[in-house]
Sequence to fold (178 residues):
Amino acid sequence: MSEKDFLTKEPRVLISAEKIQQRIDEIANQINKEYEGKEVMAICILKGASLFFADVIRRIKVPLRCEFMAMSSYGNEKKSSGEVKLVLDAKYPLEGQNVIVFEDIVDSGLTLTYILNLLKARNPASIRLCSLLFKPECLKKPLEVDYIGFEIGNEFVLGYGLDYEGYLRGLPYVGVLD
Ligand code: IMP
Fold:
């Protein structure tokens, strides 16, 4: 059997494309209300949040600028190495900005905690966290995520930006390989 056997199987749909888009409408509406009269500095955490980010920001009506950051903690494994590294940093100074960080999934929470501490030190006017997915059972330390798309159980998911061994990010839904 090939090592990339997973590419020949259709993943089981956990969250459909329609449900994702509906939830993104709700999150974007909430952001539009809460940031009325303000500007937003939206930070996308690459690569996993890229699809989610693109869909949310297209619905944001307040003035918005984008920055991109990349972290690594997983390599090719399904479990986090626990060591978070900054691979790409935001270029624009964040002092005085209303920052919203967009992440694909909060598992142990180590990545987002690391990012939060890093960005807080740059004195933004405010900072909020938005994650498409959240695995509450896996959280290692308390972390307040302001906007959550969906809570899921402790299973490895892929699609809609999330990968398995670098593949399957382009699926329009969130799925599971059984
Ligand atoms: P944390 O630091 O353990 O919260 O993990 C955050 C990062 O791990 C995410 O940004 C993802 O890139 C990756 N990750 C965690 N769980 C999954 C999963 O179920 N599928 C795909 N990637 C995941």
